Amino acid sequence: MSTVLEKAKAHMREKISAGLRGPITVPEWETEIWYKPATTFHQESKVIELQQQGKTVEALVQTLINRALDENGKHVFKLADKQDLMRGVDPAIILRVISEMNDEDSYDGENLEQVALKNSKATPSS
């Protein structure tokens, strides 16, 4: 195995073992969502396949299923929940949760104020 491949795999192990990020507070669901800072291509293969088929909404729901965890790192949703999520859950909330995951993922340590402002605009006021 190449040295570069070993380094690449070690980097991914480090990202995945970095612990959970969050919580993302979802008052409408009376819960908090946690997530890992990275996913593998294996985990995302279904999302990529759905996007290539033009099934953007289904890909977003699949992303939520793949990434949403509880405080113990257990998946909040199962694949069997996909249809209920697509048909019976407010899409604005799903989009907000995924957006907050993505915003925190892109946080580079320098744009905290911009990320916080963007997240506060995505959160409904009380």
Overview features:
single chain; 6 helices; 126 residues
Structure characterization notes:
It contains 6 helices and 2 strands, in the order H-E-E-H-H-H-H-H. With 126 residues, the chain is mainly α. It has a two-stranded antiparallel ribbon. Strand 1 (21-26) and strand 2 form a beta hairpin. The protein is globular and about 50 Å long. The termini are far apart. The model is unreliable at 107-126 (pLDDT under 50).
Note the total helix count: 6
End-to-end CA span: 55 Å
Helical residue percent? 55-70%
**Residue runs with pLDDT of under 50 for 5 or more positions:** 107-126
Write the layout of secondary structure elements.
Blueprint: H1 3-16, E1 21-26, E2 31-35, H2 41-52, H3 56-67, H4 82-88, H5 91-105, H6 112-122
Antiparallel strand pairs: 1-2
Helix pairs in contact: 2-3, 3-5, 5-6
Quick synopsis:
By secondary structure, this protein is mostly helical. It contains six helices and two strands. It has helices at residues 3-16, 41-52, 56-67, 82-88, 91-105, 112-122, and strands at 21-26, 31-35.
